Amino acid sequence: MKAWTHTEYGPPELLRLEDVSDPTAGAGEVVVRFRASTVNAYDWRHLRADPGLVRLVHGLRRPHAGAVLGTDVAGIVDTVGADVTDVRPGDEVVGSVSLGAWAERVVVPRDQLAVLPEGIDHGDAAALAMAGTTALAAVRDVGEVRAGQRVLVLGASGGVGTFVVQLAVAAGADVTGVCSTRNLDLVRSLGASRVVDHTREDVAALGPFDVVVDIAGSLSLHDLRKMTTRDGTIALVGGIAGGGGRLLGPATQIFAGALLGRLVSQRIMAVRAAAAADDLADLVALLDDGTLRVPVERTFAFADVPAALAHGETRRTSGKVVVTR
Questions:
Q1: Cα 142 to Cα 235: distance, rounded to the nearest angstrom
Q2: pLDDT tens digits along 268-283
Q3: In whole angstroms, what is the distance from residue 283 CA to residue 63 CA?
Q4: What is the model's pTM?
């Protein structure tokens, strides 16, 4: 089969579409024939080894042999492991892997897989795997958002942010979304009661809010705390943009927030997404009933994965960048 591999850390141009061995499903696993994926910051950060912590896991000088990027996958079940009885070949599914989704066939753990109802677009479904479950963790698990609360979403027009806005609105919150000028209408269409243009307004002067979900990473912890009620919650998704040092990079702010959260009345917590089957199934149901929609900025063919990754890496995308085959 074909897969997008890389043998060095660096720009998307290093990716090569090469022949690799067909995968087999082990215990608790399912082989999925690729139909769609999406681009996440997680992907290009692993390609560039940014932050440097990536090298400690995936190879100090160069990636381990056969490295394949991609975390989201939607497609059709090809084969299943001997102990998998509730998913069958031919089922349409969405799932998540730590890496390795950008291949014609992908091995996905059954507990990170959800079956799709008829009529769900594979590209829309793929967006749920990382961006959707991250948003769900931010709104439900960390923010514990409930009806009547005031919620601020920093970075409301990106892949995760568009889901956070919709999930918080569905929970009954009054949502303020922050984005750039060109995305104001998009965020408003997702249900935000107020949309703020960060190029024209002082975002740090907003608030106070019961829950602040920071995806953009453009403000300091000091600013985020000023925008949050005394007993409110700050959910850190993306860390600090463009800074933090070589080793930890953006995650520096997340670690600092975890320490600060032990000393102040506000809850400051990192958002850790895990694409569990139950969470994916819940998001699929919300997509199916129209509660969620997936704003797709651009769709690339599987043969153009490097271009899709380069486009996503600009960090100026609205909604999701989708790859289909």
A1: 6
A2: 999 987 789 999 999 9
A3: 33
A4: 0.94
